[in-house]
Write a structure and sequence with these properties.
This protein is of the alpha/beta class and 576 residues long. 48% of the residues lie in helices and 21% in strands. Helix 1 packs across helix 5, helix 2 runs parallel beside helix 3 and helix 14 packs parallel to helix 16. The longest helix is centred in the N-terminal third of the chain and has 33 residues. The radius of gyration is 41 Å and the shape is elongated.
Length: 576
């Protein structure tokens, strides 16, 4: 037989008559046990000895105010429902009682079994509502403070603690470090095994990270696969490196994901509060993030401090980006031309168009100084289009002024990876040729193996359409890429440009020489035009001619030249 829980009710009143009245009123209410107190002191003593369900508190007591007692008992008996009982009723008193923590108010002359029972039930109901509201508020506060997946501090909490820790470090001249952590290749795991597996992995990683940090450190998850540690109480900056090393080490052991061992690593960037670059909360976060990306660039699974050298590099890149986005950029870009020589006749049959940047402060810049960054910030389509149009217009101008026989027959223009994926690439090529009145067969587009990695099937159809328009395609830097044979099979390549690194070691009579000969023979077997890059000596010329190269290109003939210098060196007098 199950027992019903009784209610422990404490009646606090200095009047014996009133206490007896209340006791008689509750006598008919089932499952109630009454305890009496005649003063504030008695009430506090009893409250310290037992758990109470209901408190009936008189307004006036001999050793204190009932309002003050309610506030006190609210702390020691937080789960009790409270009803204030008084001989008189004033609106101000009722309001004060509710503000003090009472759940109901009852006049003594209204105390009956029914009224008192109702008041107790209502007080309990109000208490339950208050308790539910409090629990929900705590949940909301916890959600605001904690990451729901890992239970770690979230970005909001971390940034608040970082702000206060930074202020303390400045005030007390303390050391402070931020460690920005990013999991390596987490997206691959997420995409291949599913987001539920990724979430499980993040929780396990969070647990391991907690074992790696010190008690004085704060670990948080910023979102995704990004974690961050705030390291304080350091004697030396190297202590941040020790924390980073422990974080790297805890991921050495594979993590079991649904009985499958998975190994994952992390890259960590560290910024330390200093007078130069990391002198604000925002700067510390930004510098740690930059250092983390440098750790990834350096090979991943390692940590990297934000340093003076890294700061200078970042500053240079930032300035380079500003210069690239300058509205006057195209006033300073130049196209230079390097001749493509017929191996047999040693005459110019084509040119490669190569971009240069006549920087107002840094002088003439070769592509390696800015092209990669232009690609990163999404400017290569517009720059590439400018080069294409300038080179096509220049070849047409030469053919008009020097005649078809006296001018190069073809101009070769490099295409970047982003250009290859532009939907309007084919229409841009067609429009440019039409605007400049140059036949399509006079244009050759150079692509690198690196540019062909992403979505090769889609690229194949694009390149087929270009070739069908009578524009030829050449594969640049052949032999240095990722899967040369596959590219030649998949794409409509007509010209192979053998990378200059192979010719640079020609004459050593070693494996490199045999590889160079094999590549030439391979291209000729496939009936592809072979271009040897990096021709710098007579011996190079002799070797290429002897072994069947079709076209030669290199400093032996000329370095890249401006249009005017190219004309002066390689083109005869204009035809009438």
């Amino acid at each position: 037989m199950s027992s019903v829980k009784h209610l422990d009710v404490l009646v606090i009143d200095d009047s014996v008559i009133d206490r007896q009245m209340i006791r008689r009123a509750v006598a008919s209410i089932p499952d109630i046990v009454v305890v009496e107190a005649s003063s504030c002191a008695d009430a506090r003593r009893i409250a310290s000895e037992m758990r109470l369900d209901v408190l009936l508190v008189d307004c006036n007591l001999p050793d204190g105010s009932g309002l003050a007692l309610i506030r006190s008992l609210k702390q020691s008996q937080p789960e009790a429902a409270i009803v204030m009982i008084s001989s008189h009723c004033e609106d101000s008193l009722v309001g004060q009682a509710l503000d003090a923590g009472a759940h109901d108010f009852l006049l003594k002359d209204e105390v009956t079994s029914t009224r008192l029972g109702r008041a107790i039930r209502q007080a309990q109901h109000r208490y339950n509502i208050e308790l539910q509201l409090k629990k929900r508020t705590e949940v909301i506060k916890r959600m605001a403070r904690e990451d729901s997946l890992t239970g770690l501090a979230n970005r909001y909490t971390f940034e608040k603690i970082l702000q206060s820790s930074y202020a303390r470090a400045i005030r007390e001249n303390k050391r402070l470090a931020v460690l920005f952590i990013d999991l390596d290749d987490f997206k691959t795991i997420n995409d291949s095994l599913g987001h539920h597996v990724g979430d499980f992995l993040l929780k396990e990683v969070g647990k391991r990270f907690k074992t790696a940090v010190r008690e004085s450190d704060m670990l948080a998850r910023l979102g995704g696969d990004e974690f961050v540690v705030l390291a304080t109480d350091m004697e030396h900056d190297d202590e941040a490196a020790h924390v980073a090393k422990r974080i790297l080490d805890v991921l050495i052991e594979p993590i079991l994901l649904y009985k499958k061992p998975v190994t994952i690593s992390s890259s960590i960037g560290i910024s330390v509060l200093d007078e130069s670059h990391c002198r604000s909360v925002e700067a510390m976060m930004r510098c740690a993030d930059i250092a983390m990306y440098r750790a990834k660039k350096n090979g991943r699974n390692q940590y990297c401090f934000y340093s003076e050298a890294l700061h200078n590099e970042v500053a240079r890149k930032a300035q380079l980006e500003r210069d690239l986005r300058d509205p006057t950029l195209f006033d300073h870009l130049r196209v230079y031309y390097q001749p493509l020589m017929d191996a047999k006749t040693q005459t110019v049959v084509g040119v490669e168009a190569l971009i240069r940047w006549e920087h107002p402060l840094r002088g003439l810049l070769a592509p390696f100084a800015f092209i990669d960054h232009a690609e990163t910030i999404g400017m290569m389509p517009v720059i590439g289009y400018w080069v294409l149009k300038t080179a096509v217009a220049q070849l047409h101008d030469w053919q008009v002024r020097y005649g078809i026989a006296g001018a190069p027959k073809k101009v070769s223009v490099n295409l970047s990876a982003t250009q290859l994926h532009c939907p309007e690439l084919l229409s841009t090529i067609k429009n440019t040729l039409e605007e400049c009145d140059l036949p399509p067969e006079c244009l050759e587009l150079e692509i690198t193996e690196h540019a062909l990695i992403d979505d090769p099937e889609a690229l194949s159809s694009t390149l087929e359409a270009i070739v069908n328009h009578q524009v030829s395609l050449s594969l640049d830097d052949f032999g240095t890429g990722f899967s040369s044979m596959q590219h030649i099979h998949l794409f409509p390549i007509q010209v192979l440009k053998i990378d200059k690194s192979f010719l640079a070691t020609q004459g050593d009579e070693g494996a490199q020489d045999r590889l160079l000969l094999a590549m030439i023979q391979f291209a000729r077997t496939l009936e592809l035009t072979v271009v040897a890059e990096g021709v710098e000596t007579k011996e190079h010329v002799a070797f290429c001619v002897e072994n069947g190269c079709d076209l030669l290109q290199g400093y032996y003939y000329a370095q890249p030249l401006s249009a005017g210098d190219f004309e002066a060196q390689f083109l005869d007098a204009p035809s009438d």
